[in-house]
Write a structure and sequence with these properties.
mainly alpha; Rossmann fold; Tyrosyl-Transfer RNA Synthetase; 3-stranded parallel β-sheet; 14 helices; 5 strands; binds tryptophanyl-5'AMP
Length: about 350
């Protein structure tokens, strides 16, 4: 029998923003009531592009602080940083030998991140989705809450799980394991803000790496910063529509309404019922109040937590030791299945 387990990860690459929060972290918090959850600060993914070491350390603590400040309970569930559990890297290597080049060549995120100078991208950036599959499958997790942009990587994780189960089916059986040794992890892409867009351009994803800080709301922005960014957010000259259909050709309006809905815990239709027909100025004022109300306390708590690095580090170490118990069990089984010899 497979245990219903949730796994997800966030990269410690700075500028944790509203997209990360509404697309992923809000759902992490909710799932705690119904599932066993493992939330990981994926520091090994971060170094697929250059990270200044001191900044990386700070960013690992900042993401951990965001998890806790948003309402993740690191005692009831597991919060840790990836590099403390070596089974992630070990399973990723096995998956490097299961996944096919053709599969990775289709990954749009690699193409975007590598850009024109592909020859100069790290090998790690290319193999990144295999490590991500290992993150999930080393816990044999069944549900993975993510934003829309991670969907293709989740499909790859499913393909890897299936190919491993098929390639090694005889050995899996011979060692007495269920023939579905790795489950098919299911993406949970839910809520009205699975793809939060830039505040400067409604056709571009809100991203940590956008050179304009006005394109995103960072979780550490103060009330003035949040207000300024929302007031400056790009809109169009029409009043807000009264129905969702009216948002279809208006990416900026659609984005702001989605953000409002997600922050308020409502559907877009309900937001348009309240604001449809009105001007953006009134809607933006309400959005500023709501965003400051919801994000202000999280930012403040994050600041407090990051001032106590010893506490944050102790949360990570404790989480890692509990994660390690589950991960090494899977890794031992994988070694047996593959035919490696290990100390018993
Ligand atoms: P990362 O660190 O880029 O983003 C963390 C989470 O935030 C979501 N997200 C968004 N959601 C909505 N709108 C946006 N503009 C937006 N930007 C980011 C992402 O979808 C993600 O859920 N590869 C992953 C990290 C990872 C992982 C894993 C996730 C590594 N191993 C295993 C799940 C399971 C990433 O780079 O996320």
């Amino acid at each position: 029998m497979t245990i219903e387990r949730v796994f997800s990860g966030v990269q410690p690459t700075g500028n944790l923003h509203l997209g990360n929060y509404l697309g992923a972290i809000v759902n992490f918090v909710k799932l705690q009531d119904t599932h066993n959850c493992i939330y990981c600060v994926v520091d090994m993914h971060a170094i697929t592009v250059w990270q200044d070491p001191a900044e990386l350390t700070r960013n690992i603590r900042e993401v951990t602080a965001a998890f806790i400040a948003a309402g993740i309970d690191p005692k009831k569930h597991i919060v840790f940083n990836q590099s403390q559990v070596s089974a992630h890297a070990e399973l990723a290597w096995v998956f490097n030998c299961v996944a096919r080049l053709g599969w990775l060549n289709r990954m749009t995120q690699f193409k975007e991140k590598a850009g024109k100078d592909r020859e100069n991208a790290s090998v790690g950036l290319y193999a990144y989705p295999n490590l991500m599959a290992a993150d999930i499958l080393v816990y044999r997790a069944t549900h993975v809450p993510v934003g829309e942009d991670q969907k293709q990587h989740l499909e790859l994780a499913r393909d890897i799980a299936q190919k491993f189960n098929n390639d090694f089916s005889e050995s899996i059986g011979a060692h007495g394991f269920n023939d579905k040794f790795f489950p098919q992890p299911e993406p949970l892409i839910t809520g009205p803000a699975t793809r939060v867009m830039s505040l400067r351009d409604g056709t571009k994803k809100m991203s940590k790496s956008d050179p304009s800080d006005y394109s995103r709301i960072n979780l550490t922005d103060d009330a003035d910063g949040i207000a300024q960014k929302i007031r400056k957010a790009k809109t169009d000259p029409e009043p807000l529509p009264s129905e969702e259909k009216g948002l279809e050709t208006r990416p900026e309006a659609d984005n702001l309404v989605g953000i409002y809905a997600a922050l308020a815990g409502k559907a877009k239709t309900d937001v348009l019922r309240d604001f449809g027909g009105g001007q953006f100025s009134g809607f933006k004022s309400a959005l500023v109040d709501l965003a400051v109300d919801k994000l202000g306390p999280i930012g403040a708590e994050m600041k407090k937590l990051t001032q106590d690095p010893a506490y944050v580090d102790s949360v990570l170490t404790d989480g890692a030791s509990r994660a390690n118990v589950i991960a090494s069990e899977t890794m031992n089984a994988v070694k047996d299945i593959v035919g490696f010899i290990r100390a018993k």
